[in-house]
Specification:
The protein is mostly beta strands. About 0% of the residues lie in helices and about 45% in strands. The protein has a five-stranded antiparallel beta sheet with strand order 1-2-4-8-6, with no helix packed on it. Strands 3-10-9-5-7 form a five-stranded mixed beta sheet, with no helix packed on it.
Length: about 150
């Protein structure tokens, strides 16, 4: 299921300014960010002994009638060290209406237990502060007594 997030609905709050450079997207109207999957990005149970990280994809898309400028995509600093995103994304990214861009999130639990995180997508809405969408991430490191990379039942 896809989620639509109007850019005017999620203003970043905080001290000081983010200092965004405004982009001339050349369009009239309100840009809309679409996010798929809807809700939490869930990795389920993953063994800490698994050699490769588990990978899930978040699809960002322009659901409005004007160009959408994605300025930054990052993990919230409160996210556990078990999650990663590529740091070489082609940013800023301009998405025409209907355009989309996949972002891979990797999960490599380092212990048994629950891990949470948050993927933050920062947009240009013509203000210095910009706006953001936040996607919760959840995953669990499972018991793997034989160190085979598979979860025990």
């Amino acid at each position: 299921m896809r989620t639509l997030i109007p850019l005017f609905a999620a203003t970043m709050m905080g001290c000081g300014t983010v200092g965004l450079e405004a982009f001339d997207t050349g369009g009239e109207g309100s840009p809309l960010l679409g996010v798929d999957p809807d809700g939490d990005l869930s990795f389920g149970r993953v063994s800490p002994a698994k050699e490769k990280s588990a990978v899930e994809e978040v699809l960002l898309y322009s659901a409005g009638d004007t160009t959408l400028a994605i300025v930054d995509v990052y993990l919230n600093e409160s996210s556990s060290g078990a999650y990663t995103v590529r740091n070489d994304l082609p940013l800023p990214l301009l998405l025409q209406p209907g355009g989309e861009f996949p972002v891979e999130v990797r999960f490599a639990p380092f212990a048994v237990g629950s891990f949470s995180g948050e993927l933050v997508v920062l947009f240009d809405n013509g203000t210095e502060e910009g706006e953001s969408a936040r996607i919760p991430i959840v995953g669990q490191g499972c018991e793997d007594p034989d160190q085979t990379g598979s979860c025990a039942d």
